[in-house]
Amino acid sequence: MVSSPHPSPVAAPAVYRAVLDGDWSDAATHGAILPVLATFCRLFGPDDPAELVFATDPGYEQAVGGFIAALLRAVAPDAEPPVLLAKSREEAQGEPSELWITLCGDATRDAVAAADATACLAARRASL
Question: How far out from the chain centre does Cα 110 lie?
Fold first, then answer.
């Protein structure tokens, strides 16, 4: 499911923040986020005002960070990566975001969410 903007009690972000939320131990989720991560890496660099946040359960941020690093090596091994972060869901919800993608583990729904997300990322890049 993609929602934009994510309801947030805080002011608009100084950077474009997209959040991926899902069960990072589920292989189906991995397949769904690869196109989103690849698109984010192609569209944004480390100096762009954009970040991709992987929301997770509290206490798993470091493990998800390792997961992100492995995925990054798979989709953009030679690229200078954009800002990619792992944060607890609570922390991510407390920060403003323009895009929140919740992956449910259903391959069809997650593929549609990933396609919608990549379209939103491309639109944001075009607006910079």
Answer: 13
Is the Cα dihedral 24, 2, 116, 45 positive or negative?
negative
Residue 12 near residue 120, CB atoms below 8 Å: no
The architecture (CATH level 2) of 2-127 comes to 3-Layer(aba) Sandwich (3.40)
pLDDT tens figures, 101-112: 999 888 899 999
Measured between its terminal Cα atoms, the distance across the chain in Å is 25
The torsion angles phi and psi of 3, rounded to 5 degrees, stand at -130, 145
Q: Which two tokens stand for residue 6?
A: 């994510």
Of 9, 3, 22, 19, which is closest to residue 97 (Cα–Cα)?
19
Mean pLDDT for the stretch of residues 64-84: 88
